[in-house]
Amino acid sequence: METLTSRKGRSVAAGTLLAATALLLTACSSSGSSAASGAASSPAASATASASAPASAPASAPVSTSTTPAAVASASPGGAAMQSATDTFLAEGQDVNGTALFKPACVGTYGCALSGDSTGFLYKMTWTTWSAAEAVGTGTYRIDDCNPNCAGGQVYPVATVITLTDPVRVCSSAGTRWFWSHASFKFPSGLPKALQGGNGPQNPWTFSSVTAAANQGCASS
Q1: Is the pLDDT assigned to residue 81 strictly greater than 60?
Q2: How far apart are CA 21 and CA 114, in angstroms?
Q3: Helical ranges in the chain per DSSP H
C-alpha cells in the first residue's frame, strides 16, 4: 500500500510537469506572434503586401500644370512663341519699313544708323549673342555731340558694348518681323568730357518709333 507521502510526491511532480508544459506553450505562442508582427513591419514584407493588394483606381486622371507650346502661343500676344533668333532684327534708323539688320557688321562709311536723325551710329560690330531674347555686340558707338547743333557737331567714336532686348512684332509693308525695341550701353573706356552729364547719349534707350509701330498691331496673326 502506497503511503501518503509517496502519493503527495507524485501529485506534486505531475503538477510541476503541467505547469512547465503550459509555460512552454505560452512562450511558443508569444514567439510566433512576435515573428509574424516583425515580418509584417519589415520593408520586404510591406513591399510584398503592397504588390499583392489590388491597387485602387484614381478618381480622375491627374491634371498637368505644364504649359504646352500651343498654350504659350495662344497666350502670347501676336504669337510670341513663334519668334526665333533668325526672325529678329535691328531696324536701321529705327525705321521698320527700311533696312532690317541681322547681326550687322556695320563696316560701311558711317556704319549702321541707330537713331533716326543720324546722330548715332554703330561701327565695326561683333555680336557675341543674338538670340530670340537679346543681342549683345561689341564695337564702336559714333555719337554726335550736337554742339552747337547736330548738323555742325563733332562725332566721337566711343568703345561700347550694346545689349538689345524687348523684341516686338511689327507688321509693315515689308512683311511681319520682330525688331529690338530697347538698347542699353556700357562704355569700357568711359565717355569723353563732351558727352558727359546732360550731353550724354540716351542710356538705356527705348526705340519709340519701333514700339509705336508694334502697338498698331497686325491685320491678321
Answers
A1: no
A2: 105
A3: 4-41, 43-52, 69-75, 208-215
pLDDT of residue 27 exceeding 60, the answer is no
Do 92 and 12 have their domain in common? no
Grid cell, residue 72, equals 504659350
Do residues 116 and 208 touch, judged by C-beta distance below 8 A? no
C-alpha 123/C-alpha 139 separation (Å) is 6
Q: What is the pLDDT of residue 198?
A: 87
How many domains, in total, are found in the chain? 2
- Amino acid at residue number 53: A
Please, what is the Cα angle at 200 between 102 and 164, to 5 degrees?
25
Cα–Cα distance between 41 and 47 in angstroms, integer? 10
| Nearest C-alpha neighbor of 70 from the set 78, 81, 57, 59 | 81
Name all contacts of 113-121 with Cβ < 8 Å and 24+ positions apart.
114/141, 114/183, 116/209, 117/150, 118/93, 118/144, 118/150, 119/143, 119/144, 119/146, 119/150, 119/153, 120/144, 120/201
**Closest Cα to residue 100, out of 151, 7, 173?**
173
Task: Give me the domain span that covers residue 42.
Answer: 4-50
Let me know if 95 is exposed, middle or buried by CB neighbors in 10 A (0-12, 13-18, 19+).
Answer: middle
Q: pLDDT higher for 19 or 114? A: 114
